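INFO  loader      accepted 1 record
INFO  loader      residues=107
INFO  predictor   begin
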Amino acid sequence: NRIWLRTEGRYNAERRSRVSDGLHDLLYSRPVSTFFDLQAGLRYDFDDNTGRTWAALGVQGLAIGFWRVFATAYASDSGHYALRTDAFYDLYLTQRLVLQPQFETNW
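INFO  predictor   done
INFO  writer      dumping tokens
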């Protein structure tokens, strides 16, 4: 069992302002198989004007070919829905140099 805190934000250096847009996920993760976990929790988006709170349900794990995958569905209290997927792979060029191709979608 794990607690995940995933956070992402944007900072505008030209205006020297605080973080203007961002999202925070707080997820509880529980294994459902050898390579995959089921996650449930909350997401909070903050924008320049208002924020939005979402319920989150997703899966994360290690797929075929050692790709790490995340897929999370979101539902807000105002009737909005979203889906976010993320996949990445660690390609070791040397013992210290790692190339990490990453694919992310937001629906």
